[in-house]
Design brief:
By secondary structure, this protein is an alpha/beta fold. The protein is built from nine helices and seven strands, in the order βαβαβαβαβαβαααβα. A seven-stranded parallel beta sheet has the order 1-2-3-4-5-6-7. The termini are far apart.
Length: 263
């Protein structure tokens, strides 16, 4: 499926899942690079000790990865893989510092709606000082709240650029999956608009495009990440929905070329 992303997105954020076994990030990244796709690799501290994380960073650097997304990782619910032990040798701050020793561009995550809400801007500033240059804002943060958070983070000392994660869903299972993620709050009216539409797929695309446009209008939001299942019907349908959203947003982001001889 990697080649299906060619030509319409700048990079693919590779996830690190808490409820299933993933192939090593460096292996997936290598396959993406071979397919002409730019991987942005997520590394979490939940399931790897410091030695394993350092090895994964070294491997990513060796295969040509340029960006890594460093997060502490959410603790698992008791019923998810109860036979495993979580690690947390490091947290996101120390993982950022380690990643910078490999001369990688580093991003982090923030959840402005998750408690302790008041500490989040200062935490973002700490991550900036640790060496992160990009910050992904969690799904469900509207444009107004994103603007307030960016302002507060800057006042606290952050120099990072921000990415707004945009919820993309076109069916009830997809919306439920997104809403079940830690720190994610989907706007109920948006869910009703999409799921109650005569054509939920088109409605989901329109909702995501509108949210992306609003986010990109915020000073300090320099990119959007299309997040969520998009469609649970099939992988091909998921890519088609994401592509439809991305192409609409990219048209908005590219200024029209001047016509030769125009006044």
């Amino acid at each position: 499926m990697a080649r299906a992303h060619e030509g319409w997105c700048d990079a693919v954020l590779l996830g690190d899942h808490h409820d299933r076994v993933d192939l090593p990030a460096s292996l997936i990244a290598s396959a993406c690079l071979e397919a002409g796709i730019r991987p942005w690799v997520t590394l979490t501290c939940r399931d790897r000790n410091a030695v394993a994380l350092e090895g994964e960073l070294a491997a990513c650097s060796a295969v040509g990865v340029r960006e890594v997304h460093c997060v502490t990782g959410d603790a698992r619910a008791a019923h998810i893989r109860p036979d495993t032990t979580e690690v947390f040798d490091l947290d996101s701050l120390r993982l950022v510092q380690l990643a910078r020793t490999f001369d990688l561009t580093v991003s982090v995550a923030e959840s402005p709606l998750a408690e302790p809400v008041g500490r989040r801007p200062a935490r973002a500033a700490d991550k900036s000082r640790a060496g992160a240059s990009w910050c992904f804002l969690n799904v469900g943060v509207g444009a107004a709240r994103a603007a307030a958070f960016v302002t507060s983070a800057r006042e606290a000392g952050s120099t990072m650029r921000f990415v707004a994660c945009i919820a993309v869903f076109t069916d009830e299972p997809g919306a439920s999956r997104l809403a079940g993620l830690p720190g994610v709050i989907l706007e109920e009216s948006a869910v009703r608009r999409v799921l109650g539409a005569g054509d939920p797929v088109q409605a989901g695309i329109e909702e995501a495009v509108m949210s992306a446009r609003q986010a990109l209008a915020v000073d300090g939001i320099d990119a959007v990440d299309l997040s969520g299942p998009a469609s649970t019907a099939s992988d091909a349908e998921r890519v088609a929905v994401m592509r439809a959203v991305a192409e609409r947003v990219r048209v908005d982001a590219v200024p029209p070329q001047e016509t030769e001889g125009a006044a």
